[in-house]
Amino acid sequence: MKPVIIDLIAAQSGTGKTTVLVKLLPELKARGLKVAALKGEVRRYDLDVPGKDTWRFAEAGAAVTGMITPDKYIFIGSAPAEGINATASARLPDMDLVIIEGKRRSPFPKIEILRSAVNRQPLLPEGVIAIVTDLEELPLPRPLPLFRLDDPAGLARFIDERFFRSGKAAEPELTHLDKAGRPRMVDVSGKKSTHREAYAAGEIAIAPQTLVRIREGTMKKGDILAVAQVAAIMAVKDTGRLIPLAHPLNISGVDVDFKLNERESKIEIGVRVKLTGQTGVEMEALTGVSAAALTIYDMCKAIDKNMLIGNIRLLEKKGGRSGSYRREENEDG
Known about the structure:
Blueprint: E1 4-9, H1 17-30, E2 35-39, H2 53-59, E3 64-68, E4 73-77, H3 84-90, E5 97-101, E6 110-114, E7 128-133, E8 146-148, H4 152-163, E9 194-205, H5 208-216, H6 224-237, H7 239-242, E10 253-261, E11 266-277, H8 282-300, E12 308-318, E13 325-326
Parallel strand pairs: 1-5, 1-6, 2-5, 6-7, 7-8
Antiparallel strand pairs: 3-4, 9-11, 9-12, 10-11, 12-13
Helix pairs in contact: 1-4, 6-8
């Protein structure tokens, strides 16, 4: 079976392709993958010196020449017609994966490296399947998985699952249960502290006249959304106490947003949570949305008992071993 070929690309040199690849290789190896790493788009590099033995072998018609020492080997070949990427990879049939650094123009899948100090706009050539970046926000014309520069484990998992495990039935992992089936808090002490972020959303359907009073600020209990915003922030900070197996976390930031949708007579709620730590903040964002919705219900129930809370879901997460996730939704949600 031919190896999978992935090109690691960037807009210009100095972006950090080699650094990303050096950190990625041991993560891929730990997943049991045999990986070849090749330097691509080298203008010229003469391994053969005219008159030397390997040069004479090639001149005489050898398809591949090379040298062998007691502990290393090197092969030299050429492919003027069929394409050097495919030819080089074909010489590596025992490899699972061939990563070529710097080959932008190829028919193979590509992972783009984008570092803000060098360039803030991605190339996005045909075939890009993911972006590795230090930018917190990166508007893209189409959804793509985003990985932080300091998250090689997440990138390795993405590659492994996309190319090597997509056809295999995934084993369910209930990490909050021990081998005996008893609940436990997952031990994260061995994990590195990295940037984590999650954005959750939900909504509360509400009577049109109630929505008008909230917008105009004429509810007897005061500013409904201001209180709901505080409730969301408090719930985020208290998630470790409210959810039995969630970790208590030192939250870095919480943003809460509300949208009054008069056409559908509902309030849409969004909560974004950020942290630098050893575990994610998905539960914190979801708990914040829930608390905001419940607070709105509590403050409006005297005039509208038919309110309906629903559609609470995770829309986005960043960081951690599993990498980035973005829920795909149509315009109607």
